[in-house]
Amino acid sequence: MGVFLVREMVGTSSHSWSDAARQAVAIAAKTVRNIRTVEVVQSTARVEGGEIVEYRVQLKLSFEYES
């Protein structure tokens, strides 16, 4: 059992909310090791001309602290 840190971030995609979450995790994983869980806190979208043009997800990432 270790210590876990939680960080919030926002992912975006022009395709879907799940793609926005995947991209956020992929980018975070480039600099953060040991990501264990992802919690979607909020899903929103930007609309232009009556169409969704950007999906956004606010995430909480938890990762194990390494001393």
Question: Could you explain how this protein is built, in words?
Answer:
The chain is built from one helix and three strands, in the order βαββ. The chain has a single domain, classed as Dodecin subunit-like. Strands 1-3-2 form a three-stranded antiparallel β-sheet. Helix content is 18%, strand content 57%. With 67 residues, it is an alpha+beta fold. The mean pLDDT is 95.
How are the elements arranged and paired?
Blueprint: E1 4-13, H1 17-28, E2 35-48, E3 51-64
Antiparallel strand pairs: 1-3, 2-3
- Cα separation of the termini: 13 Å
Total number of strands: 3
Q: How much helicity do the residues have?
A: 10-25%
The total domain count is 1
Q: What spatial order of strands do you see in the largest sheet?
A: 1-3-2
CATH topology: Dodecin subunit-like
Low-confidence segments, given as residue ranges, are: none
Gross geometry: elongated
Q: Could you give a short account of the major beta sheet?
A: 3 strands, antiparallel
Number of helices: 1
Instruction: Give the integer mean of the pLDDT values.
Output: 95
Give the ordered list of helices and strands: EHEE
Question: What structural class should be given to the helix and strand makeup?
Answer: alpha+beta
CATH superfamily: Flavin-binding protein dodecin
Question: What percentage of amino acids are in beta strands?
Answer: over 45%
At CATH level 2, the architecture is 2-Layer Sandwich
Q: Which radius of gyration do the C-alpha atoms yield? A: 14 Å
Oligomer: single chain
Report the top-level CATH class. Answer: Alpha Beta
